[in-house]
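Q: I have 146 residues here and want to know how they pack in 3D. Can you give me a structure?
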Amino acid sequence: MVKYQNNYTSSFLFAKILPRIIHKGVEVAALLNSNIFTYQFDYDEWPTTHTDQSLYMRSYNDSIFELRKKYRDIFWEDQFEIKNEEDEVIDSSKLYKVCYKINLLPILSEYILDTEEGPVIMNEGVSIISECIESDELKIFEIDNF
């Protein structure tokens, strides 16, 4: 899976079974450190450079298909406002490339899905973090995708 299907679309295959796999003692560090649970994106509507080189982590609980329109909802602070190129001249040596990623691991644990009929609890009673803590595989705590 990691070698030939290293893409976020494969993450949905594990939505129900990964916690059970970890519980059974199967080593999953390579899987968790792959691109299967990480989606890197680049939308024209989102800025590709910024003057701030800090790392920011934000939560996002909507559909991945709606993400394209959600930049200002996620990065609502004034410092992340998309500036018009004519408004301000910025020294290009102080511009840094921005990389946007989504970590899909939270769909493997219990979460609430808002539906038209009301909230629905998904993966009730499942905790990927608890399974990792109880696992004997120490390499899973060295991965970059958590």
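Q: Anything worth noting?
A: The beta strands are 38-41, 49-50, 96-97, 100-103, 111-115, 118-122. The radius of gyration is 18 Å.
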